[in-house]
Amino acid sequence: MTSSKLKIAFAALAVATSGISLAQTQTLLNGSYDVAREFYKDYNAAFIAHYKKTTGKDVKVDQSHAGSSAVARSVADGLDADVVTMNTSTDVDFLATAGVVAKDWNKKFPDNASPTTSTMLFLVRNGNPKGIKDWDDLIKPGIQVIVVNPKTGGNGRYAYLAAWGYAKKKGASDAQAAEFVGKLYKNVPVLGKGGRDATTVFLQRNIGDVLITFESEVLSVNKEFGEGKVDAIYPSISVVAENPVAVVERTVAKKGTADLAKAYLNYLYSEEGQEIAARHALRPRSQAVLKKYASTFKPLQLFTVQEVFGSLGEAQKVHFNDGGQFDKLYTVK
């Protein structure tokens, strides 16, 4: 064989080998909510190493982030996410109704298919110049509150439900709770599209006195914007926010990634997965890890959505569907 023919043969072999190598590296896409961005960056690296060690296979994990409802709509419209990792079950229920995830998705993994939880707290400017301590302070005249639109993000829905639940836990009737929450939203100059957008409004555009957001956003803010820009204020009462996960059956059937998708979500429940979650201020289900990070998770009175609203699905119908309670009390500015 001539030298030039040998070169061509080797080149062809190299291309074929690289093709085999690429074929062996499966790619998984996780459709997730804004505030989980940094957590999944660390978790993905740990999962990739774990998967290689236990199976000998390489895997690449890509992320798609936005307000949770916006991600759910993208997946329903054809985004080929293999898994969704959300901050509210109504967004996964929406995908189940669309036939994209299993109808019984919340029984496919432990703890209602929610490997972590969070809660809502307040971020105020350093030194807390407006003296904000609890939900009652957010309805005072002259206080500007930044919050996510509950129609586009679970962050916003949980903020709304936390405020309503606070009023109810303090003895308010439904009419009084509606009046309380209505006063709060009258103090909202602009609604964020998702958690990260709301944080940007608060810290980059410098709008508002207080940001209502997930507990886990505190670490992200300190990391991205520098320590000392905000103080975290824990209200006396807040809501338990479950972070549900599901395999996108439509995608994994097409791509042949069902086993990989399940392994990815199962690893969230491992000690390492729970530890990474705790480091990102997501409340772990593991009692051992929770105990280890007790100083991160301040004690406060927590209520579940079921206690006050029956279920998230019921809350969605009453409060957030078009023409619901939120539309009655908030006019988009």
Description:
- By secondary structure, the protein is an alpha/beta fold.
- It folds into two domains: 166 residues, Periplasmic binding protein-like II (D-Maltodextrin-Binding Protein, domain 2, 3-Layer(aba) Sandwich), CATH 3.40.190.10; 150 residues, Periplasmic binding protein-like II (D-Maltodextrin-Binding Protein, domain 2, 3-Layer(aba) Sandwich).
- It has 16 helices and 14 strands.
- Helix 2 links the parallel strand 1 and strand 2.
- It is globular, with a radius of gyration of 22 Å.
The portion of residues assigned to helices is: 40-55%
| CATH top level label of the largest domain | Alpha Beta
Q: CATH homologous superfamily name of the largest domain?
A: Periplasmic binding protein-like II
The CA-CA distance between the termini, in Å, is: 76 Å
Please trace the helix and strand order, writing H or E for each element.
HEHEHEHHEEEHHEHEHEEEEHHHEHEHHH
Beta-strand share of residues: 15-25%
How many whole angstroms does the radius of gyration measure?
Answer: 22 Å
The overall average pLDDT, rounded, is 91
List unreliable stretches of 5+ residues.
6-22
Strand tally: 14
Oligomeric description of these chains? single chain
Q: Taking strands numbered 1, 2, ... along the chain, how are they ordered across the largest sheet?
A: 7-6-8-5-9
Number of helices: 16
Examine the secondary-structure arrangement and name the CATH architecture of the largest domain: 3-Layer(aba) Sandwich
Q: What number of domains? A: 2
